[in-house]
Amino acid sequence: MDYIQTTSIETHLDHNSTPEALAKSYDDWSGTYDEEIMTQLNCTGPRKCAETTEKVMSGSNLKEVRVLDVAAGTGLCAEELVKKGFTNIDAVDGSQKMLDLAEKKQIYRRLICDFVGPNPLDIEKDAYDAIACCAGFAAGHLKEDCLPELIRVVKPGGYIVITFREEWLHLYEDFKDKLEPAMARLQEQGLWERVSREIFSNYYQGKDGITVVYKVL
């Protein structure tokens, strides 16, 4: 039986949702989020995103690498990053209650409550060595219009690691023929270059995941 039809996540994947409505939805979900995503669904996305971030930053002292966790939620990806040795991690997410739970885990240095899109974030240019973004790209969530802002806050030579559900590229109208072409255009403009694109199995409940890595130029 399809995951979307059997879990409460369906209510958070409305492509017509406004940012404010989405934030309210996650505020309401925050209390059971970790249990549902990691225990009931055994989502491997946070671990995969962290492993890939570790791989691309392998030549650096991970304790000194400054990472921005985009669409951080309650900090599931950051928990995996900490296991890998990262300690200098900031978070940005649109749900304050999700960030309140993340703060209690004591894994972030700074938590920013904001919607990630074409709008400038309260972050300086070239501030981070890497971005880790797990599950932020989904129906009604992040879209291709946020990519220039992600590039802006990562220093040249830094990396952007994005992990999400692979079938969104085919099923979700806001991604289909839009997300990857937008990534390609940014490469053509000389803003970043693709390092890798990997489809992997068992993102959750039989669904494939995809992780793409870009190096900022």
From TrEMBL:
Pfam families: Methyltransf_25. It comes from the Eukaryota. Transmembrane segments: none annotated. This is WBSCR27 protein. Residues 67-158 form the Methyltransferase domain.
